[in-house]
Amino acid sequence: MGKRRANGEGHVYQKKSGKWEAMCTIGFNNKGKQRFKYFTGETKQEASARMRKYQAEKERGDYIEPTTMSVEAFLDYWYNNHSANKVKDTTRADDESIIRNHLKPYFGKIRLCNLKGYQIQEAYKEMEEKGKVKDKKGGLSAKTIRNIHTVFSRVLNQACKEGLILRSPLDSITLPRVSKTSIEILSPEEQKALEQKCYDQPWGMAIILTLYSGMRLGEVLGLTWADINFDKNTLSINKQLSRLKNFDTDAKTKTTLGLRGETKTKSSTRVICIATAVMDKLKSYKQEQDAQKQKIKSAYNDLDMVFCTENGYYIDPKTFADFYTRTLKKAGIGHKTFHALRHTFATRALETGIPHKVVSEILGHSSVQITLDTYSHVSPELQSNAMKKIADEFFVV
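Now predict its structure.
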């Protein structure tokens, strides 16, 4: 008699087609009937090797049953269950945009269990060179690709947790380096020229307040009078105004403009002190706004906004950006982003000797290292002034 095979050892045989098939038992179904798993190969050795590989992975606990789910299907599942109504509105909007514009077009039709690192690496390279699959009008920046990678990491890590893949194929990816770009700031002369043009402009006070607080655009436009404490000369930054994708399927518009009860990061929620001279200007601005309320009375939509349209409604960030560009032009200043005002404030603050830690807290940075890295251009001058001060104080000729 031939040697009896041990339970689960498997059996290899040739099929009528000429191919070889290996078979091993994998337990019993709920009716007590034995279940089998099959492995096909061109040769007996190939079929047997596939079966032994499976058995070894099962023994180590490394085996995951291949899923027929596509990357696109899992992206939909992940978005609906782990992004929508689970994260901040701004994060949800970013997730939806990245999934729709980049992840689905490049990877959607691939089976989740078949997704390989080299496919992702090649796709990232194509994104860098050609851009979106739809238009391919220009390459994406390294920062954008890293943002895509961050979302994809959250998706595939969840697939690992749910046992759909053994490990994330992103583990082998090399990301493009983000080159540090120089920041824009206004020169002292440009700052003075801009301020002078702001006083006779409808929303000029928003520009002045930014130059002396370093707030982000959404934070400035999101200020309400309830956030202002004229007795203590402080203002609370706890929300922002933004226009985001409208996720309501019955909505008539694709986007919605409104206050978000959240700031960019946890550290961005803060209370900052404002110079008395600036607060005095803000008081005068409020008096003018109150006069406008009285002028149009019931037609005024009182949302308690510090900066608003003539009838009290939110200012669209794009509308304000256009106003800012026109004001720069009137001041004889070339193109500068609104964020340049934030950089200008930080640079002036550091130049006047305010410690990096304090500037970091005013700006709402998550760490002082971000402040140090962003405004490293100020450090050489600070060092020079400090060395001169020490020498003037202590050096004996």
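The longest strand covers residues 20-28.
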